[in-house]
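A student in our group prepared the protein record below, which I am reviewing. This is what I was given:
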Amino acid sequence: VSVIRVIFHRRVLVLFSHLRFIEDDRFYAESYASGLLLRGVLLQFLGQYAEAHRAFDEVMNMSKRLEHRSFLPANACFEKGLVYLAMKDKQRAHEYLRKSLKLLFLA
């Protein structure tokens, strides 16, 4: 992993850590959830699995505030499954990958 990529990823993490959620703006909620999803992926890339799980959990918990056909919760479940796969927890990985498919087809 190049040093420049790590520095870039860490700067993006700092940027998203300063965002605040405004409950009554759906467009902002979608943007915020997208940022959280990206943050989780970057944390996973950096090997910070516990923080990645928290970011993905927050996206999934925001599902009621997002547009009805938003794919963000399904993507968060999918990414969470990939984190479990990286952690060699195949049972939980399978659980979250199946859950992501259910969310995808419900959207």
In short: The CA atoms of residues 22 and 35 lie 14 Å apart. The longest helix spans residues 26-45. The chain has a mean pLDDT of 82. The chain has five helices and no strands.
